[in-house]
Amino acid sequence: MKLEHKYGFWFFVEQIDGMRKVYEIFNSTSVDPSVKKSAVDQLAIILQDHNLHAPFKAEGGVETVLKHLKLGLSRRDDVQVVQGFRYGRGFY
């Protein structure tokens, strides 16, 4: 094995490990929502590397993202305040 292949492999392993750590933060139930949002933003950037798609899928990432999307879409709070606007019953 050539030296660059060996280092390339370890670099890839480090990328997978970093992706897993960020995914664990996103998937955690005890993390502040702002930290989760930051983790989602980081995952979006990390997953631009197509080589990390398979490890992300293997971790259950696709199912977790879909679960969060469904929760967000199905949540029917009477009042959701977002940047000064109230959705559901007129303006805030």
Largest sheet: 2 strands, antiparallel
- Mean pLDDT, rounded to whole units? 78
* Assembly of the depicted chains: single chain
Secondary-structure-based class equals mainly alpha
Strand order of the largest sheet: 1-2
Count of the domains: 1
Strand content: 5-15%
Total count of strands: 2
Low-confidence stretches: 81-92
Distance between the termini: 64 Å
* Cα shape: globular
SSE order = HHHHEE
Q: Please work out how many helical segments DSSP would assign.
A: 4
Residue share in helix: 55-70%
| Cα Rg | 18 Å
Describe the structure.
With 92 residues, this protein is mainly α. The protein has one domain (3-87). It is 64% helix and 7% strand. It has four helices and two strands, in the order H-H-H-H-E-E. The protein has helices spanning 3-27, 33-46, 53-58, 61-74, and strands at 80-82, 85-87. A two-stranded antiparallel ribbon has the order 1-2. Helix 1 runs antiparallel to helix 2.
Keywords:
92 residues; two-stranded antiparallel ribbon; 4 helices
What is the secondary structure topology, with strand pairs?
Elements: H1 3-27, H2 33-46, H3 53-58, H4 61-74, E1 80-82, E2 85-87
Helix pairs in contact: 1-2
Task: Please sum up the structure shown.
With 92 residues, the chain is mainly alpha-helical. It is 64% helix and 7% strand.
